[in-house]
Amino acid sequence: MNHTKGGLVIFTANSHPSGRELGKRIAERLGVELGKVQVYQEANRETRVQIQESVRGKDVFVIQTVSKDVNTTIMEMLIMVYACRTSCARSITGVLPYFPYSKQCKMRKRGSIVSKLIASMMCKAGLTHLITMDLHQKEIQGFFNIPVDNLRASPFLLQYIQEEIPDYRNAVIVAKSPSSAKRAQSFAERLRLGIAVIHGEAQDAESDQVDGRHSPPTVKTTGAIHPSMEIPLLIPKEKPPITVVGDVGGRIAIIVDDIIDDVDSFVAAAETLKERGAYKIFVMATHGILSSEAPRFIEESAIDEVVVTNTIPHELQKLQCPKIKTVDISMILSEAIRRIHNGESMSYLFRNIGVDD
């Protein structure tokens, strides 16, 4: 049964077979077939896109998941969007469940804000709308000059906790660092559970020490500045020993975050919670990047289960580590596509969703 008005075309690229699988699920829910498109790499690694059906005057939705080769993923997306634009599509909506380079959304020393660059490239290619999920920093929406719907995976993760963890009432929601305490608090309030925060872990890439604010001032020369304008020196920050604020003894610990990539911090947090008496440890996040040796580290750690959504393909990682479980979020993506195409309000998808989710 077709649940949409006419003129809807859904394309998927070739970044990963699981990306096409996600596209098929979305198309089935909408009662349409995937659009015909050919995406392949030339011998010199150039990306070529050939749209094999008319998109003139139609609403086009391009679904792209981020594979291990993230730069090829981006180029596939940009070229496909531009091909639809030059083929006179009425509107072109990008569906990127995980927005690439989202970690590089702040200025670091003499680097650049790469998320802003990617956003500008997508808009320049012809994107008229973007659907994504759980941006690493919500301020990334401001990098676009087109509408951006930042959907949330928290309802699906909360449902998993309630249905798949029988004694979840004896759980405590854990933030592995003070910076993720708001997300943990949001989960805890919805489940009516307690909260714990791990403080004192090693500095991560989000710390102030990786930008230019800690660099020493230039050597003061005579008469360079007025004596009254001398900048006071600050005492350098030192992390205290690892402490857990909150009681986890004899409880299930559920660590929540938005991205799981380098799992060192999660493994260290699990060991700390185990030492404090937690008897089961779950890790829940929206985006399971799980790079490099992450599956092996998880398998050898005190973590009992890692739950992520299918915003990013991770079938290979699941084969390497049975502890990794997947939650399907194709339902909310298909409903977002249907509402945008039919010109309906998106507020239903954000009901009871807080800023910190």
Concise structural overview:
The protein is of the alpha/beta class and 357 residues long.
Strand order of the largest sheet: 10-9-8-11-12-13-14
What class would the helix/strand composition place it in?
Answer: alpha/beta
CATH architecture of the largest domain: 3-Layer(aba) Sandwich
- Give the radius of gyration: 23 Å
Number of strands: 14
Instruction: Give the CA-CA distance, first to last residue.
Output: 33 Å
Provide the β-strand percentage band: 15-25%
- At the fold tier of CATH, the topology name of the largest domain is Rossmann fold
Low-confidence stretches: 202-208
Describe what you observe in this structure.
The chain has 357 residues and is an alpha/beta fold. It folds into two domains: 8-151, Rossmann fold; 154-200 and 240-327, Rossmann fold (3-Layer(aba) Sandwich). 29% of the residues lie in helices and 21% in strands. The protein contains nine helices and 14 strands. The protein has helices at 17-30, 70-86, 114-125, 154-164, 181-191, 264-275, 294-299, 315-320, 330-342; strands spanning 8-12, 37-41, 47-51, 59-63, 91-96, 129-133, 148-151, 171-175, 194-199, 243-245, 252-260, 280-288, 305-309, 324-327. The strands form three sheets. The protein has a seven-stranded mixed sheet with strand order 10-9-8-11-12-13-14, sandwiched between helices. The protein has a five-stranded parallel sheet with strand order 1-4-5-6-7, sandwiched between helices. Strands 2-3 form a two-stranded antiparallel ribbon. Helix 2 (70-86) packs parallel to helix 3 (114-125). It is globular.
